[in-house]
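Field: sequence (string)
Field: structure_tokens (string)

Example rows 1 and 2, in order.
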Amino acid sequence: MRALALAIGLFLLPPLAVAQNDEPASRVIIGELFPLADACYQNARDGLTGGDGLLPCNQSLDSEPLTNRRRAVVHANRGVVQYNSGDYAAAISDFTAALDLRVYATAQVHANRGLAYEVLHFEALARGDYQKALTINPKNDLAARRLAELDKPFLERSQIPRRITAEAPAEVPEGS
């Protein structure tokens, strides 16, 4: 009975730290109640790569009682780690998983997936994600810059960023 009360209490308590953000309405708090999700965010923010960077992300998805919104954030952060590790197909898979949950469709997730598509020369898909990012947030500089680059001849384009990071935390409760 005590365990059940604790489990219910965990879902009712306000979350304590934050994950990747974009627009104010899409910020999600994760933190102390979800230490693996928080470690995943920190690894994405700090640019960790490979197995060390992915481990807490994988463990969070496998073992923490995540809401769909938190699960989407972990996928987005794991996508950042995958991208920085050079596994662009896996990054696309994670960014898509985050978007497919339909609770965390931020401009940054679309822009990040656009970068991964662009690296793999799927320019039409990259263009679509950059346009969607700008629809969500017209001030997304990354999406605007990359969309402009796609309009240039291939050999005149600036280099695609090889490293990305999760955004800075903000204290806005989930659901706001």
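Row 2 begins here:
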Amino acid sequence: MRAHLTQIVAGLLVLLLTGLVEAQEAPKDPPPLGELDVLRLEKLVAEDKAPVYVVHFTQADAADSAQSFTSLNLASREEKNAVAAEIAGKVVAIDVPEGRRVEAGHVLARLDDATEEIYALEFEEPAFITLGLCYEERPRFSGGAYHPVLKRVDEFLKQPLRAAMTVRQKRAKVVLDLDNVVIRQVEALKAKGMTSPYLKSFVVARVNPIRFRPKEAPPLSFDEALGRMTTAAEKFNPDKIRLDDLAKSGGAPDEGE
């Protein structure tokens, strides 16, 4: 009886020790990517050591890492815009079955050739697209000062999204070039002692060609309106502006101030 109990205890000890060894050797789930890991990935790509494979053992960790990937700095703003212009559209077909190996040059999916105006519901206003690209280029851009004008002259384009993106980028540049002139005039007003938060909105309103345009007059196109505004902004004379003029303007404070 005693020998039988000894065998049972010995067997239990073996099972216990085996379990401890397996627990020690079992791979631990890697922690989500941290700031250091993101920098390491950027360094590997910069050194042309891509592709880089990141392995996870749980879906939750993979989701956390995917969120960290959004901060990876792997392309310039110009490159990102170029990619966006190339891939704009909705996926209408996926041509590669799940799990199949692919190589460079294989067609993975097909996009539709819908025009920008078809997505009017998603975009809400055409001005929002142009202003969004302005903010992408200049985060402290004061879009609120220009929205009343763009809302009147900007319109959805009857072009496929890829071509429309190119037009939008050109329009955003026109607005930003105008903004450069307006900023210069705002600084001139500040030099005269005017420190109102409405300075940029005031200057934009003063050079707005639509503000006092007769209702029966034909509408101005985007290029016409922004061209006239830029010319007027260049001719704007800060020396002729009085504090009373600024007080009467009202409006929303400049976002960039």
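free_text_note (row 2): Residues 116-249 form one domain.
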